[in-house]
Structures are given as structure tokens and as C-alpha cells.
Design a protein that fits this description.
Blueprint: E1 3-6, E2 12-17, H1 23-32, H2 35-42, H3 51-58, E3 65-71, E4 78-86, E5 93-100, H4 109-123, E6 128-134, H5 138-147, E7 151-154, E8 158-164, H6 172-180, H7 193-217
Parallel strand pairs: 5-6
Antiparallel strand pairs: 1-2, 2-3, 3-4, 4-5, 6-8, 7-8
């Protein structure tokens, strides 16, 4: 069910689950990001989203793989997306991240997207979010002390957060940490490769299950 959220600036955004028809909106949103925002979110000078990544990231089942988007009601533009992908079918853990368009940042939109994503995750039986962040990301590291034992290091220069979802609202440290991992929401670069791989595995798993079901009916 779509909902309207009012932001700190007084602007409004429409929040809803991603639909197959949002493919063009997703591409346009990526292209509107500044070079600085792309580098900060993807940790590499990414120029475009591949067709393969888009296919896996738009074709979602809203159970093992969910995405919530924010739409500007006045223009119809996609201005933010929060996404989770389970680490395995029906696991209680999912990798999650959020990204917000440059001119919509610092208005509370990232938190609103994550709140809705976490609610959807709990509805689908997910109890923990994981996310990858760079160890030299100062903002992310500042909140790790509050997250404490939920974090662990990977590959020396990366940190993986493993955070239990609260029953109600997300805490500020969790929101900041997931925003630091925003590159994963688009599924590009070396750092967020795992999210795309997870999405692809789930997509292939569903395709194989559908094929088996059809074969059984023949």
C-alpha cells in the first residue's frame, strides 16, 4: 500500500514497493547522481548499470528479495531506494542498504525508506539485517561503537554489520550504518557484488522451481 511521508524540508515523497515498471526510473535515478555520490556509494567510478544487474534487481519476489522506492509526486522521479536480499532462501538474515538522490538527502527520506523496508522484512520473517561498509568510512565507524558486538571485520578494509531488527522503529546508529552501505542498493562495484550474486541466485532458484512445477504438470 503506497504511503506519503512528509520530510523535514516540507516536501513529500510517495513510498511503495518497487514494481517491474520502475526499471527506467531506476536507471534515470542512477544517472542523476553526482560523480561524488556515485563514488561514495559504489566505491568506484561507476558509469552505468548493466542490463544483467537491472534484470536481477527489478525482477523481485517481495519475499526473499524486496525493494522500497521513494517517488517525487510532482515529477514521478525515483528519488530513493532501500533494498534487502536474503542470504539464502527463507533465511532470517538479509543484506540491506539504502540510497537517496543528492538533492533529497538530509531530509529524513533514508530513515523513512529503511523503516518501511524493516517492516516488510519483519513481515517476511527476517530478523537481522547485514551490510558491508568501508573501514575508512569515518561516519560509519563513528556509529560502530554504539552497534558494538553486531559488527565484524572482513578482508581487512571492509566491515560487515550484523544487526538485529528491533520490534518497532530503527535506532539512529542502525540507520546511519545502513546508509553508509548504500552502494549495495544498486548492486554494482566490487563491494556490493554479493548483493547482486544473492539476487541472481534467488532469481535462478525461482526460475528453476517454476520450471520444475511446469514439468510436473505435463
Amino acid at each position: 500500500m503506497p504511503s506519503i511521508v512528509k520530510l523535514r524540508s516540507g516536501e513529500q515523497a510517495l513510498l511503495r514497493e518497487l514494481e517491474a515498471g520502475d526499471r527506467r526510473r531506476l536507471i534515470d535515478a542512477f544517472e542523476r547522481l553526482s560523480e561524488e555520490s556515485r563514488y561514495r556509494r559504489f566505491f568506484a567510478p561507476v558509469q552505468e548499470l548493466s542490463d544483467g544487474s537491472l534484470e536481477y534487481l527489478v525482477d523481485i519476489d517481495h519475499h526473499d528479495h524486496e525493494a522500497v522506492v521513494a517517488i517525487d509526486p510532482s515529477s514521478g522521479d525515483l528519488v530513493g531506494v532501500a533494498r534487502y536480499v536474503r542470504q539464502a532462501p527463507d533465511s532470517d538474515r538479509a543484506e540491506a542498504a539504502v540510497v537517496v538522490a543528492d538533492d533529497w538527502q538530509r531530509q529524513g527520506l533514508g530513515r523513512a525508506l529503511l523503516e518501511r523496508l524493516a517492516r516488510r522484512a519483519r513481515e517476511e520473517g527476517i530478523s537481522r539485517f547485514t551490510a558491508l561498509v568501508q573501514a575508512d568510512n569515518r561516519r560509519a565507524m563513528e556509529v560502530l561503537a554504539e552497534i558494538g558486538p553486531t559488527s565484524r571485520s572482513l578482508e581487512g578494509n571492509l566491515v560487515e554489520l550484523d544487526i538485529e531488527l528491533p520490534a518497532e522503529r530503527l535506532g539512529t546508529p542502525m540507520v546511519l550504518a545502513l546508509r553508509a552501505a548504500a552502494g549495495s542498493a544498486w548492486g554494482v562495484r566490487p563491494l556490493s557484488r554479493r548483493l547482486v550474486e544473492l539476487a541472481r541466485e534467488l532469481w535462478e532458484y525461482r526460475a528453476e522451481a517454476t520450471q520444475r512445477a511446469r514439468s510436473g504438470l505435463q
